């Protein structure tokens, strides 16, 4: 008989939840535990209102194939207990029970059960198409388009996203890398070619079937059968180039689904066999190799649930048994663990561009699931709130003002971010999300030509689907946004003044995250960014070259590229060990908008530095946004041995350095920066405009940036106070101050426009 034991959950694994400390956000709870690591585990889970699990008050669920479970009914408010056990199929009995855990269900929680595996697809049928338009919707859509070719943007889609593929030569199967060693430019060309192939198959198939146009259908079949001839184990396989494999699997799914009635059985079998093989490659990686149900922090594996498993399995459901198995896994992951990168506040720890990429695919997947199965994941709290993340942390008028890997770094906020947030406008009715979309549409009219858009999505196809599926929402200017927004789930805080007016807008963003530098996050706990009056002032430094480039590894991911500190020249851990990445974390200890109008944040990044600076005792950064006008930053560093601090600041233009001050002069705005207190004495200021340890060929022709270092003297304890005063170009804004040195600390008094505020600074020892 197998014995249930409980492996310890680790820094990268799922937790044993829920328990008494869990604040439930939805009903029923999501149950997770660490598996016993045996082959073909099956579990039974029990929920009871009695700690003794008497029969009358106990529900049993079995078999459960993975270490996560969402019940199919909501629970009544009250106190409950749960436990699980391994099921021994050979003896038809369960092993010893796990630890009993207690949880409480509050009243008024959103009810988000997941239908059982037996009932999950009861409303689906075997007809095609199933992806986007259902067979029952097709005739209505066809009639509308024929009556009014502008319906849902059809004309634009047809002329620019369909007709060009009728005259294009078939795209050749991508050639291997030289010596089969990945080259960034060739990697990108491969997936761009595959994305174009997806466009050709999907758009010709949809248009041909909607219009009942035999010529378009013939073109679509020609492209589809061409891709079927590609080697599934070759250059577009999952293990050779996963981005290419995702796109080709998606192309096959859309072609198979929409052209189903226009293929003979031999053609269907040929397409389905290759589609099944390519889907299995991805499913194997996700479920068996990456095991994201146990260790959920594999960005590409999580995304492939949306880009591959959802469309491919829906297309093959009722025809291939494995499709149901993989679709079950996908829905259970969406119900239970999604999103591993955020939580109740809707944040996304990898940053706004990876929010954009993930949301682009997950909203499409959730839409496909809702339309085909009737199950609506948008009811979950994360999806209800996640539009707030780009609104506050990637505002549409800003540049270089957010954290994490960003292919758009230096460009306006991505139009696709706007398209994504509009999905949430359609689901929630939030007019500020619609406003955001409309701003991105105006600010980036050439968006579709950029590689990070054209190689990933077609805006005209997206527009057509949205207009058909969602109501229009009236835009609402964000006049009444929260002045301080704390994303507790990811450890980010945004402070805003006049977000609705780009010429007056001040945005300050800081983070200290429990996710550390894992995945697409960087060694930037306690860092800050500042955008004001239409100008990026304290910037996210560097360029997007490619993931794994020297720019990425040696500059962008490292603390030295951020507005932060180094300790004896050393920053936070940002290497390749995922355990150390997660351990290099920070925490927002407090973030509040005070009654006197001051925004305040206290962030602790001590743990982030310990791998490289083991003698660090404490690093706290406090930020004050005062009078909706200026910022005071207080850095407190305590060490077990003497050390010096490098205070870092990055901006686009050469600064004016004078004494203990620096000045940034941009095209629209300026920034006056002053070091008004340092416990170790005056700092030594210097600036340079090189990206250290970056291959020059990667940044040839790109504009320089300027990097300030303000170095302290060596000491075991440091207190450093910096005043940052943004202003419109040509304006004069002066903040006066004086200090009162007390036995227990320093009192700093600052006056602006006749208003005086006090900041208290603890003593250095």
How would you describe this protein?
- The chain has 765 residues and is of the alpha+beta class.
- It contains 19 helices and 27 strands.
- A hairpin with a 2-residue loop joins strand 19 and strand 20.
- Helix 6 packs antiparallel against helix 7, helix 7 crosses helix 9 and helix 8 runs parallel beside helix 10.
Secondary structure blueprint with pairings:
Layout: E1 31-32, E2 43-48, E3 58-64, E4 68-69, E5 78-88, E6 93-94, E7 101-105, H1 135-147, H2 154-162, H3 164-167, H4 184-211, H5 214-228, H6 242-258, H7 265-290, H8 299-316, H9 321-336, H10 352-373, H11 381-385, H12 388-393, H13 415-428, H14 431-443, H15 451-454, H16 459-469, E8 484-487, E9 492-497, E10 506-511, E11 528-532, E12 535-538, H17 550-556, E13 565-567, H18 578-583, E14 587-593, E15 599-604, H19 606-609, E16 616-626, E17 630-643, E18 645-651, E19 656-658, E20 661-665, E21 669-678, E22 684-688, E23 706-711, E24 715-728, E25 736-741, E26 745-752, E27 755-762
Antiparallel strand pairs: 1-4, 2-3, 2-5, 5-6, 5-7, 8-9, 9-10, 10-11, 11-12, 13-18, 14-15, 15-16, 16-17, 17-24, 18-23, 19-20, 20-21, 21-24, 22-23, 25-26, 26-27
Helix pairs in contact: 4-5, 4-6, 5-6, 6-7, 6-8, 7-8, 7-9, 8-9, 8-10, 10-13, 13-14
